[in-house]
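Worked Example 4.2. Consider the chain below.
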Amino acid sequence: MKVPGFLLALVTAAAPLAAQSAPRVATTLPPAELAALETIRKDVWVHWFAGDTAALRRVLGPELIAISPDSPTFQSLEKTLSGSADFKAGGGRLISVAFDSTTIHRFDHVVVMFSHYAVEMESGGKPFTQKGRATEVFVRHQGRWVHTSWHLDVVG
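Applying the procedure from the previous section yields the following structure tokens:
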């Protein structure tokens, strides 16, 4: 008969939680902090296309999960660095990258950036433009922002 009493106590304790609304998230950042995150975001893209794996290691988390439109699997930090080096070694180069419609959600030490991106590159001697949506996650750790994941898709 102890089990029903335990279940009653559990249900009673959890009932107030079910009635609570989800917490609101901050959708703005101080201008200097937003500018710093936008710089880190752009630098990651520039470093990736430049094959600068040392610079990428300084800002990407070791637990990186990268989801790209051209890969059926999640990519780790090592696979991401390898892809960057391979792109550069294959003669690829970045022409430009731009972001618009950026929206942020801040949860204490975590910022999620949602945006549209347009990247112009050259691969195999041919120019190529890719446009899509990006969701990028940054975590504030030991006083600095670390880029821990992204999910990219392509929009027609």
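The longest strand covers residues 126-141. The chain has one domain: 22-154. Compare this with Example 4.1 before moving on.
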